[in-house]
Design brief:
Layout lengths: L18 H18 L13 E6 L5 H12 L3 E6 L11 H9 L5 E6 L4 H8 L3 E7 L5 H15 L6 E5 L6 H12 L3 E5 L16 E2 L2 H7 L2 E4 L15 H8 L3 H5 L6 E3 L12 H4 L6 H24 L4
Parallel strand pairs: 1-2, 1-3, 3-4, 5-6, 5-8, 6-7, 8-9
Helix pairs in contact: 1-5, 1-11, 2-11, 5-6, 5-11
The structure holds N-carbamoyl-L-aspartate (NCD).
Length: 314
């Protein structure tokens, strides 16, 4: 296994990681991907640790992917989801988490609808925290698995042109991707309806392209975002039909381009809105490869943070 140490005690945001940390995670994930292709897809690295997956918000891929990654590393795993728990009886977040930790838990994987939840917990409890998505803030392991997939497909990240398409304003996947890809040397631009783009993207160094067709012509990889209906208290779009017309990606649109694109999506897909099925299931889609890589990338993150529990940084 590649050796090296992360510079952080938790994985809360890509913003906290150095380029070295990102490289270390991706290289460690290469080795875990290889483990996943062995007849016995399991290693004993985390057999001394207990991990709790705390999901206060819905999830399919991320929750299963973390749980599988933990089990493939031989950790003991417990799962919590807020529906059916004492949260519905009015228990506070800190109380819920402290009670769970009293059962001797080493690491928490946390998803919550509120941005900042993971940082709040990291300041208050004595366990390593991994952010599995906090509100519209960050989703660092999704960005890492996206970067891993781009590198696998393109052979490199430096200089690769990546376009984030759609609801950037409400997307934690977009925020983490922008910072992660830039740190790894990719060129990142953004397109989407003006109402769904945060106002300071250009000041932050991420050029905005107005027209989808020009933006698609520019990029090597299009990472397509889901419209985050659950975070939209006001109506940002006239209709989904209009969104699909101007920013939805279909086969006809891709056939007009001078070169093929890699198509990514973090899931779940709104089929017929941001992506038509002829693209989502088409030859250039790497959506299921992203899911496969997610397990290896999460194994890498868990393994590197576990290493820190045993050899704490000062
Ligand atoms: C994303 C999420 O929940 O942030 N999904 C995921 O983790 N794969 C993206 C989304 O919900 O659109």
């Amino acid at each position: 296994m590649k050796t090296g140490t992360l510079s952080t005690r938790h994985l809360i945001a890509i913003k906290d990681l150095s380029e070295n940390d990102l490289d270390l995670i991706l290289q460690t994930a290469d080795q875990f991907l290889e483990v996943l292709y062995r007849p016995v897809r399991k290693v004993p690295s985390l057999r001394d640790l207990t991990i709790a997956n705390l999901f206060f918000e819905n999830s399919t891929r991320t929750r299963l992917s973390f749980e599988l990654a933990e089990k493939r590393l031989s950790a003991d795993v417990v799962n919590f989801s807020s529906s059916g728990s004492s949260v519905s009886k009015g228990e506070t977040l800190s109380d819920t988490v402290r009670n769970i930790l009293a059962m001797k838990i080493d690491m928490l994987v946390v998803r919550h609808a509120h941005a900042g939840t993971c940082r709040y917990l990291a300041d208050r409890v004595d366990a390593r925290i991994i952010n599995a998505g906090d509100g519209a803030h960050e989703h660092p392991t999704q960005a890492l698995l996206d970067a891993f997939t781009i590198r696998q497909k393109m052979g490199r990240l430096r200089g690769v042109k990546v376009l984030m398409v759609g609801d950037v304003l409400h997307s934690r996947v977009a925020m983490s991707n922008l910072f992660c890809l830039r740190k790894l040397g990719a060129e990142v631009r953004v397109t989407g309806p003006a109402t769904l783009l945060p106002p300071h993207l250009e000041d932050m160094g991420f050029p905005v392209m107005q027209r989808l067709d020009e933006a698609l012509e520019w990029c090597d990889v299009a990472n397509v975002l889901r419209i985050q209906h659950e975070r939209q208290a006001i109506r940002y779009l006239p209709s989904l039909r209009e969104y699909a017309l101007y920013f939805g990606i279909n086969k006809a649109r891709l056939q007009k381009l001078s070169h093929p694109l890699v198509i990514m999506h973090p899931g779940p897909i709104n089929r017929g809105v941001e992506l038509q099925s002829d693209v989502a299931d088409g030859p250039h889609s790497v959506i299921l490869q992203q899911v496969e890589n997610g397990v290896a990338v999460r194994m890498a993150v868990l393994y590197l943070l576990a290493d820190q529990i045993r050899n704490p940084i000062s």
